Amino acid sequence: MSTLHLPSVLCATTALLCAFPSQVCAWADQGHTAMWEVAQSLLTPQAKQRVDAALAGDKLDMTAVWLDRVRDVGKNEGPLVGDAEAADFIKAFPFHFTWHYVDMPLDVKSYQEATGFTTRDDIVQQINLCIAVLEGKSTKFDARTALRVLVHLIGDIHQPMHCASGFFDVTDTQHPVLRTDPASCLPLKKEKLEDRGANQLFFGPEKYDQMHALWDFELVKRLAGLKNLTKLLQDALPKINTTTPGDLHAWAEHWAGESVALAKEAYAGIEFGACTLNTTGKGPKIERIEVKLTADYIDKQKTVAGSQLVKAAARMAAVLNAIWP
Ligand SMILES: [Zn+2]
């Protein structure tokens, strides 16, 4: 795989006092929108016609982040509060908020191997459901909803922290121990002793000094500045192998497997410090673990992030072109 040629960044790893939006979501809104814009330029005429007809005038950004905005409704936030279509969707699919991810242990080699960590409402199952709807094999929802969900989730599944989680032995809270093999992680999962896709890993004191947010927003921002993202992805497209082997219906599993492998690399070398437990619920849960990232973390991982954004864009188009050749 060729590497992306990205502008160099002259920044200290942990000095990330950037202004985050109130709601940080995978790849940021700009990442999702840029991927969908690039994907649309790669559609066959037949696929483009079917997509345009199904979306019925949806704006670019609304298709790409509709599922995140639906999630905001639960907090009474965002443009879809009061939207009848969103309200119907939430009523019909109350577990939609889990569709964005699957928390697999870092040593899992494939989605099929992750028994006990996968669910009917995880990202792989929902991508496959959307494909079935667009193929006319399921009537779970309409084509417009299927496209909105599919496009968003193909973006999310390429964010490594959306396919993996760190599970921790916190017997000694000053020295939490990361567990990566599925057998050791399963009892920890039952006790909810996980970092929830690196959401509980903090490299600084601020709310968004958090490893998941670093991937969702900061790495994307560091690639080219958010405004130039579409062009960056377009330019990088010919340099990256975006093909997925095998049958369309197994692609999502393949992408989840790729992402968990990248997540494993992204956890390598991180030092885990004190763990704070939240003991207000049924059992203790990990509230935060202080971490120290490696000095080259951002420079190294922003290249991975860029490559994943390009792959996701090309693969959105590949799925739709396979359904409507
Ligand atoms: Zn999402």
Could you explain the architecture of this structure?
This protein has eleven helices and five strands. Helix 1 (28-41) packs antiparallel against helix 3 (60-73), helix 3 (60-73) packs across helix 6 and helix 8 (211-224) crosses helix 11 (297-323). It is mainly alpha-helical. It has helices at residues 28-41, 45-55, 60-73, 84-92, 123-134, 143-157, 182-190, 211-224, 229-236, 251-267, 297-323; strands at residues 167-169, 177-179, 201-202, 271-278, 285-292. It has a single domain (28-323), classed as P1 Nuclease, CATH 1.10.575.10. The strands form two sheets. It has a three-stranded mixed beta sheet, with no helix packed on it. The protein binds zinc ion. Zinc ion is lined by residues 25-26, 67-68, 100, 152, 156.
Number of strands: 5
Measured distance between first and last alpha carbons: 27 Å
Count of separate structural domains: 1
CATH C-level class is Mainly Alpha
CATH topology name: P1 Nuclease
Summing up helix and strand content along with how strands pair, one would put the structural category as mainly alpha
* Biggest sheet strand line-up: 3-5-4
Low-confidence stretches: 1-24
> What compounds are bound to the protein?
zinc ion
Mean of pLDDT: 90
Quick overview:
The chain has 325 residues and is mainly α. It is 46% helix and 7% strand. Mean pLDDT is 90; it is low at 1-24.
Chain-wise SSE layout:
Layout: H1 28-41, H2 45-55, H3 60-73, H4 84-92, H5 123-134, H6 143-157, E1 167-169, E2 177-179, H7 182-190, E3 201-202, H8 211-224, H9 229-236, H10 251-267, E4 271-278, E5 285-292, H11 297-323
Parallel strand pairs: 3-5
Antiparallel strand pairs: 1-2, 4-5
Helix pairs in contact: 1-3, 1-6, 1-9, 1-11, 3-6, 5-6, 6-11, 8-11
The structure holds zinc ion (ZN).
